[in-house]
Description:
It is a single chain. The chain is of the alpha+beta class and 481 residues long. It has helices spanning 15-28, 46-62, 79-93, 104-111, 115-134, 145-158, 162-165, 184-194, 210-226, 230-259, 280-294, 303-314, 426-432, 437-440, and strands at residues 37-41, 65-72, 97-101, 138-140, 171-172, 175-176, 260-262, 267-271, 322-325, 328-333, 336-341, 356-358, 362-365, 369-377, 392-396, 404-408, 414-415, 424-425, 444-447, 452-455, 459-460, 472-480. Helix 4 (104-111) packs across helix 5.
Amino acid sequence: MPPGSFDTPDRLVDADEVVNAVRQFVVSRSLTRPQSLVLAAVSGGADSMALLSILHRLSGELGISLAAGHFNHQLRASAQNELEGVRDFAAFLGVPFHSGTDDVRTIVEATGDTIEEAARKARYRFLHRVAGEIHADGIATGHTRSDQVETVLMRILRGTGIRGLAGIPVKRGKVVRPLLGLTREETVSYCRASGISYVNDPSNEDLRFHRNRIRLELLPLLESTYHPGIRDNLVRLAENAQTIMETIRARTGPLLEKNLIQNPPDRWILNASAMDTLDDTAIVVLFGDLFANVLSCDMDFTRVHYDELVRLVRDTRATGKAVSLPGLTVRKEHSRLVITRGSPQDSEPRPPAPQAELALPGETTTPTLVITADVLSRATVEDADLRATETEAYFDRDVVSPPLTLRAALPGDRMQPFGMRGGKKLSDIFIDKKIPASDRSTSLVICDTHDILWLVGVTTSEKCRVGARTRDVVRIRIRRT
């Protein structure tokens, strides 16, 4: 794997100076923390080989341990040699090595993505999977200042907002970029000065790829004809946009932390009304941070996706509407957003609802619930708050007609809600109480031989309310296991 000539500088840099520059960058941006494991993404090119070497040299000082990850896109005949070169270098450094592969051309045929996009997505899927398997705290990539310049210019050309102008983030979720302060020329020179072999990917000079045309044609033209400092100006533009983003995050960060809850492992609920005070740009920043930092899945999202999310948040009549994102569904349910993995068609079948005849008095156990029913004298609960909660309710024993049963709420069910004179469909009660559609299908009821006594967690029956003439009280408590 001999050194390539692409972007090779005329003189060699001092390798120690490069390491010191990266050290300062990593420390100033808090990209690693002591006792953490970092997975370095290593393709075999100069940037990534320099990354692995520099992080290895700094590992003792930073207190980190390293692993190397290499992904084969099956796009070049030399891919096997590149894999072996990275594996040999990792072995030389004593760094654990992990590799993966996928047929990117097949992915392109299936998805319609460009080769660049399909390769990037496949590579990051691999890196996140390996990071999860080895419990890595971070994923380090070899993106450089040169990549930043190209990325910002590309986004300006296709139209972008503040997030796009911010360019490649120094840190995004688990992904960190320790080399963003170096140019591509400096990584090449570092490898040459350190005697590190690297590959020169011939596709980097293929003008069919948009990024290559930016790097090889447009940037040199702008630099020579319009402004010699164009690269510095683009980096400065990205830094200014990042500063604005951090200002916005001062508002969106606490809001997100306060208003987001995780339900089952792959379901999140976000209070949409809390975003009423945010402008559209702040909403986009909030969602971007949510997807990247909490869900680790924002790399496939576009401006179109974020515009759809803003409209969903703003639309006060959007209850029941959903936005499908790559790998996620965001559904509006009254004043909250319910975020789930997968598309609406991919939702997992729900386990069957618990069903049981309740012991009265006594304890009844189902696979997911423990239900305790007690009969108490009115005097013992005289000073208690007898209003129903999500897990506890009280009823007049003389009006209750055993046996009591627990079952799922069914279409067409009716009851007389607490405080009302007439009966009402449960579906109407759900609407009145603003119960999200996703919760209605899992709602439970407790019935006697005649009526529904309790729509659990929502309302109890007026017919069985505890009153002045009540002699004994049935107390029912539900605990989820």
